[in-house]
Amino acid sequence: MSTTADSTNAASNGTSNATQTNAAVTVLTPSFRLPLGLGAIALPTFFLQPWVGGVLALLALFLAVQTTRIRLAFTATALEVHQGQTRLRQFPYTDWQTWTIFWPPVPILFYFREVNSIHFLPVLFNPGELRSQLEQHCSPQSSAASRQPTDAA
User: Fold this and answer.
1) 103-129 mean pLDDT
2) What are the residue ranges of helices labelled H in 49-120?
3) Structural contact between residues 109 and 122, judged by C-beta atoms closer than 8 angstroms
4) Cα–Cα distance between 106 and 127 in angstroms, integer?
């Protein structure tokens, strides 16, 4: 897990600025498991159904490229999606309603719902780090995995 701390010092006259923070940002480590797994499935499929195998291989190549380019960063207030040094999107935790990582034995898809939209992301980063950060920044009540129906008495 890659962690960087962004800290600022208070003004030298002893007064502090409300915009100054000492917040840690956690950037998830990339993982090539999904593109490699899809590529491994594409190879034998190509010999059985060339067009299906070709589509799977192209999807695996696309996901491998995205794994090298896209980063998820967890800040104190939001999940941020970065491409290099550029922030593409920001998702404040206060807008989140639920989140789920599909198929935990081999995590392939990350889903989260905000107040006005839903989002699906392929798991192109370390799934253990992802789960840890989600549990840290989003309350367990926000997790669909933790919502269980209760029996009414």
Assistant:
1) 92
2) 50-69
3) yes
4) 9
d(CA 72, CA 117): 18
Q: What is the pLDDT of residues 36-80, one digit of tens each?
A: 999 999 999 999 999 999 999 999 999 999 999 999 999 999 999
CA 66 – CA 121 distance, rounded (Å): 11
- Please provide the size of the chain in residues: 153
Which pLDDT belongs to residue 150?
Answer: 40
DSSP secondary structure string, 65-121? HHHHHEEEEE-SSEEEEEETTEEEEEEEGGGEEEEEEE-TTS--EEEEEESS-EEEE
The span from the CA of 72 to the CA of 89, in Å, is: 10
Residue whose pair of structure tokens reads 């491998």 in the numeric block: 64
Helix (H) or strand (E) holding 122: strand 118-122
Cα distance between residue 20 and residue 6, in whole Å: 10
What letter represents residue 16's amino acid? S
Convert 2-37 into a string of H (helix), E (strand) and C (coil). Answer: EEEEEECCCCCCCCCCCCCCEEEEEECCECCHHHHH
CA distances from 81 to 28, 70, 112 (A): 11, 7, 14
User: What is the residue type of 53?
Assistant: G
